């Protein structure tokens, strides 16, 4: 009874043309599609915008039965299904947003063999009733989208994904294709092992997105800096601005609107209806700026996003890559801009320290953050570093801030010694909490109320740092934190020494530091 409607066509190129209206496959697609259409298992690593969807949609159309797509993006299933139906593909979905009647209708269609593709939320697959339903139909393949969610080592782990290891046991003859746009070598290996895809063919595309210009700037007045970027380079462009907290999303959106930029907020605290409406407007209208937490964006297919701006430091390079990857899917020049400052490092270290979970989990978070900091503080090509993080090779690109305006390094050894010995002195006043601001006051010889209260103007280090200014000292602290030569402890952001600090204090280690280039403006030319 499942054969009431056979495959659309046997030939994959014909399906590409007739159903999707495209002339030719993109790089990698043809091979992957042939392999999966022939019943092979595949693990696909391909950047955002590379064209992953067709890699399972076309095989599902040329094979008998229904292609089952597992995706965590419940909010997008309706859109995905609508888009497929618009080109004549018989698609449906099952997730928790439906009422029982809707679900029964989809189930009946599935059993009648009248579906080409069925989208499923991972938590549904864990239900025995869903498994029994699948048993009664005919499955052409399983596609596991956002496959990095199965990796605990990754940055976006979802426990529901672990259950997907059972697919192979329960339906051993059904081919599986897992896809992700972000995976370090470690995450790649973990996906393969957790999903039993070691024997699958692995297709790894280049992660380079040459049309994206990467820029990371010191954070001073973030909202003003953002406004300047929008006015000078992206007036009237669609873009996404990421903030860490809901309140900064609200404030930033309001600030932009006040200054004549059409901006909308998006975060999990907003009413679902407002969220959906804002997302729909962003997708349909031209030139809107979405100010959002990272709750926004996964699976969003808007080709002409011209910039992605981060006002706060992402927690990992994977997150940064994935978020910036939403810019320029149409291949046209786009900007990935991040403002980052000392406060980001302090705040994130504190968040890690107070996070739930075991030590291993905290160490994992710290490793992710360290890699992100290293990317921020590098004097090398950002793209080379980014690709290296994903285990890929790149050449200096000429299209990132460090290539366009190379930063210089300076010998920060003496400055580091001064700072670390100040930390050392204060560390002995155990009950007190002294953050970066107070330390810098001491180094600059400022007799603030707090300095006087604690007699810190009598320390031998008082006033020894006047060769640098306040912002330069903040850059020193930031970089020492990034280099692991300094750490943050407790709720107040108290700076403490690390084991490696001893090497600097004992003059066994030099500390080259990054000097920020002159401000980069307008396509990378340094301001006069
Ligand atoms: P990903 O999931 O890898 O981010 P998508 O599958 O959403 O990418 O594809 C990105 C965009 O590229 C979509 O708009 C899609 O229609 C388009 N696309 C995919 N394959 C082709 C192709 N062979 N020719 C032209 N456009 C394509
Ligand atoms: Zn570069």
From TrEMBL:
Names of required cofactors: Mg(2+); Zn(2+)
GO biological process: DNA recombination; DNA repair; DNA replication; SOS response
Catalytic activity: Couples ATP hydrolysis with the unwinding of duplex DNA by translocating in the 3'-5' direction
Enzyme Commission number(s): 5.6.2.4
GO molecular function, one term: DNA binding
Positions of the Helicase ATP-binding domain: 33-201
Protein name in UniProt: DNA helicase RecQ
Family: Belongs to the helicase family. RecQ subfamily.
UniProt keyword DNA-binding present: yes
Keywords: ATP-binding, DNA damage, DNA recombination, DNA repair, DNA-binding, Helicase, Hydrolase, Isomerase, Metal-binding, Nucleotide-binding, Zinc
GO cellular component: bacterial nucleoid; cytoplasm; replisome
